[in-house]
Amino acid sequence: MKNNLEQNNEDLKQESKNWWSAHSQDYTEAGEIPHQGVPSDMNDEQFLAYLEKIDINFGLDGYFAQERGSPLFSSLIPKNLSGKKVLEVGCGLGAHTEMLCRNGADLTSIDLSDISIEVTRRRLQLKGYNADVRQADAEKLPFETDCFDYVWSWGVIHHSPNTLACANEMNRVLKPGGGIGIMLYNRNSFYNWFNVILRYGVMKGELFTKSIQELHNRYTDGKEDEGAPLSKYYTKGYIKKILFPNFSIHSQRAFEQKRVLSFIVPAKHRRKFERLIPDSLYTFLWLKFGFLLFSEGIKNKESK
């Protein structure tokens, strides 16, 4: 399997860092433009209200990650992490960080974005949780070998120029027998083949002037405003054989947001429409061809 996705590029990494600092993963109401960045000069009450809003929308977009009415991502994040040293690679605005703390993790959370670190630290402080939240590069983790029991990462390292280096570092710092839960964009997805490749690449003729990787960059995150600097897509096989060959990957499930259907509904009615779509049925339909590919595995005990 040819490796043509990974590169060492510090300039591109800095560009991606700057973009995500300015365009946070701020889950918005259906129909609103995402990635507007965190509002400045909020007092504590306003800040907590802001977090509540984006967490609610995160849960609605991520309907597949918890039963309705249950805590955010409670169906995917391990429930009992008490006594476990956990590393979160990419904290974003701290929603998963908070849930990992709630589940008892002795948590270290990293991100390259200054804003992500600032927001996550403030979130935890105001809500009474403790974690080691620090700025760090996932390609060069500042931790000892075999020191974590579990690694969680949701939609992060596919924005790194060298995702393989990130995966190798995750492997290095995880103890043999430790677990991993990671989401990466799915190359074999409806979104990739029918929206990016067919719609933009073929029907709009952009494959004449752009590579497939350039199309991924342009029409994934921030597509309303020229796109993020780098967004890479991966197959199940690449994840298992190239990124995490020292792992027993026991589950790979794809998920898809309901906006694939709800975009046809007027913006003010989209959330109501999405709630009418049965969660379990929609999840079942997208298990192979959804855009969000979630892999879970255990590091082999003989691997180093």
Describe this structure in words.
- The chain is of the alpha/beta class and 304 residues long.
- It is built from eleven helices and eight strands.
- The radius of gyration is 19 Å and the shape is globular.
- It has helices at residues 10-22, 44-61, 95-102, 114-127, 163-173, 190-203, 212-218, 236-243, 259-262, 270-276, 279-285; strands at 85-89, 106-111, 132-135, 148-154, 174-186, 233-234, 247-255, 292-299.
- It starts with 9 loop residues before the first helix and ends in a 5-residue tail after the last strand.
Give the key terms.
11 helices; about 300 residues; alpha/beta; 8 strands; globular; Rossmann fold
- The overall pLDDT, averaged over residues, is 95
The proportion of residues forming helix, as a percent range, comes to 25-40%
The helix-and-strand class reads: alpha/beta
Radius of gyration: 19 Å
Annotated CATH homologous superfamily:
Vaccinia Virus protein VP39
CATH fold call = Rossmann fold
CATH class category label:
Alpha Beta
Q: What overall form do the CA principal axes indicate?
A: globular
Q: State the separation between the terminal residues, measured CA to CA.
A: 22 Å
Unreliable spans are: none
Overall structural domain count: 1
- Tally of separate helices: 11
Percent strand: 15-25%
What is the CATH architecture assignment? 3-Layer(aba) Sandwich
Main sheet record:
8 strands, mixed
How are the elements arranged and paired?
Blueprint: H1 10-22, H2 44-61, E1 85-89, H3 95-102, E2 106-111, H4 114-127, E3 132-135, E4 148-154, H5 163-173, E5 174-186, H6 190-203, H7 212-218, E6 233-234, H8 236-243, E7 247-255, H9 259-262, H10 270-276, H11 279-285, E8 292-299
Parallel strand pairs: 1-2, 1-4, 2-3, 4-5, 5-6
Antiparallel strand pairs: 5-8, 7-8
